[in-house]
User: Which sequence fits this backbone?
């Protein structure tokens, strides 16, 4: 039994060394890491309140102009990276908002973070600002998925929808996407993840969600060869992407994705009822995107939108609106002013 005792002692010693190393790393990671407050605490931030729900958001353009609602990606991101679309306000009433529990919108209980609430929030915003007129939607990534879902549920609310690289609108598309979007971190990446997590533990305020929000935001910038986000960028270089962010919403990301992809099965249907939508649809992709670019949209998504057109932005990745603002604005203007069906 001496050999067993030696093994146990060695394991205890190893555990002790690991704990000491982790403690040293924790203090080494100390620093001043700031996470901005949401509109719940910062009264200087612009906000929208619709149907009793408050969002961080802003509105630009003439009050009597047709309404365009810009829907950010994630779930969990904010609309900061989509502000290059603000020039549309010379013709349209442009509404930007951080979705419930994301960005600088107030954090809410996890049970409120559901796909149904996200759809209803968007529909309520369209009704509130549209004032009886049909609205136009510009959705990017997860925002495009949300745009498809709301147009399927409320087809008469919208005249034009722009779907910029939706990742997965159906179970079929989701399975194909998940085969390509895999993250198996190596030793270096694993250590980087630990370091990012330790840094996030030093966040002081402004609320109890700040630490985890910072950690998840840091993951998008993880410089690792295994990071699947490189497939979104030109030449696999994430530095070419345009994705400034105020604050990530970890709970929103985890809850919405987890409910769709949790367990052993994937079940997604964000085109339900879309055959009732009679407006116009434009798909936009970047030529560099190897994960959900034009081939993915043509094969899995466009078949649900008869008459939809596709525009491919040359030398752009997933964040095409910020990478090529002049080109994309021209395409959007031409589409949004076209007569609906």
Assistant:
């Amino acid at each position: 039994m001496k050999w067993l005792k030696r093994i146990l002692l060695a394991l205890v010693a190893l555990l002790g060394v690991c704990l000491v190393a982790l403690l040293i790393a924790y203090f080494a990671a100390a620093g001043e890491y700031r996470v901005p407050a949401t509109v719940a605490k910062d009264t200087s931030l612009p906000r929208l309140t619709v149907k009793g729900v408050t969002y961080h958001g802003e509105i630009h353009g003439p009050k009597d102009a047709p309404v365009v609602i810009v829907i950010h990606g994630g779930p969990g991101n904010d609309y900061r990276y989509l502000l290059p679309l603000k020039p549309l306000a010379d013709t349209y009433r442009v509404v930007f908002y951080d979705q419930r529990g994301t960005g600088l919108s107030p954090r809410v209980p996890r049970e409120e973070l559901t796909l149904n609430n996200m759809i209803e929030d968007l529909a309520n915003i369209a009704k509130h600002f549209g004032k009886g007129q049909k609205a136009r939607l510009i959705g990017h990534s997860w925002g495009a998925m949300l745009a498809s879902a709301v147009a399927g549920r409320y087809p008469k609310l919208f005249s034009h929808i722009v779907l910029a690289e939706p990742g997965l609108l159906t179970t079929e598309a989701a399975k194909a996407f998940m085969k390509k979007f895999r993250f198996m971190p190596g030793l270096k990446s694993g250590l980087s993840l630990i370091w990012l997590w330790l840094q996030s533990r030093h966040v002081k305020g402004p609320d109890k969600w700040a630490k985890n929000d910072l950690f998840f935001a840091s993951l998008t910038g993880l410089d690792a060869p295994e990071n699947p986000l490189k497939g979104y960028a030109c030449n696999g270089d994430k530095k070419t992407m345009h994705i400034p962010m105020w604050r990530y919403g970890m709970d929103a990301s985890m809850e919405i994705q987890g409910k769709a992809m949790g367990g052993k099965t994937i079940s997604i249907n964000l085109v339900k009822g879309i055959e009732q939508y009679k407006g116009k649809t434009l798909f936009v992709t970047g030529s560099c995107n190897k994960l959900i670019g034009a081939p993915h949209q043509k094969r899995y998504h466009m078949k649900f939108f008869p008459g939809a057109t596709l525009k491919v932005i040359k030398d752009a990745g997933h964040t095409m609106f910020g990478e090529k603002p002049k080109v994309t604005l021209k395409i959007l203007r031409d589409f949004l002013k076209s007569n609906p069906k």
